[in-house]
Amino acid sequence: MDVADQCRAALDLGTELLAAHGFAMRDVTQLVCIIGDADGFPGCFPVLRHYFASASPVLTLIWLKDGGAGAPAITFDLVVHQPLGEDDVL
Which domains does the chain have, with CATH numbers? Predict the structure, then answer.
């Protein structure tokens, strides 16, 4: 599985996890991407454009150069900022 395929699979899972909590990709405000294969990352651009067609989250890219043989080529943290309600406590 190349980096773009792993990107697609990770974002599919992210979509499911967000939906389970009442959110969608359009609610993501920050995307933290950890990659092991910097050369393969440009192949992710079309995938990211597809998943974030109606949103423009901040993208933080971390290159983990020596992740080891078993490490995934790409992982994501999807951050959603939800406004505090009047009953929420900081």
Answer: 3-80 (3.30.1330.40)
Say if CB 47 and CB 6 are below 8 A apart.
no
Express each pLDDT in 35-83 by its tens digit. Answer: 988 888 899 999 999 999 988 899 999 988 776 677 778 889 999 987 7
Structure token digits, residue 40: 């393969």
What residues contact residue 50 under an 8 Å CB cut-off, 6+ apart? none
How far is 63 from 38, CA to CA, in rounded Å? 7
Q: Which residues contact 11 (CB under 8 A, 6 or more apart)?
A: 25, 47, 48, 51, 76
Asked if 67 and 39 touch (Cβ cutoff 8 Å), the reply is: no
The residues, ordered by sequence, that sit 6+ positions from 24 with a Cβ below 8 Å of its Cβ are 15, 18
